Amino acid sequence: MLAALDHNDIMGLITFAASASLWAFVIGLALWSQFAQEH
Fold it and tell me: Quick one: which of 3, 8, 11, 39 has the most CB atoms within 10 Å?
């Protein structure tokens, strides 16, 4: 399966995964800090 993907597809997938995990971290950190302030 991996051989069917070319270099651009792999780089796009890595970039998407990195940005998605970064957004999840930022949103989670913001929610946690807001929750910590309220309690």
Answer: 11
Q: Which residues contact 5 (CB under 8 A, 6 or more apart)?
A: 13
pTM equals: 0.58
3-state secondary structure of 15: helix
- Residues 2-33: pLDDT tens digits? 567 788 888 999 999 999 999 999 999 999 99
Q: What angle do CA 16, 21, 26 make, to 5 degrees?
A: 125
The Cα 36–Cα 16 span in angstroms is 30
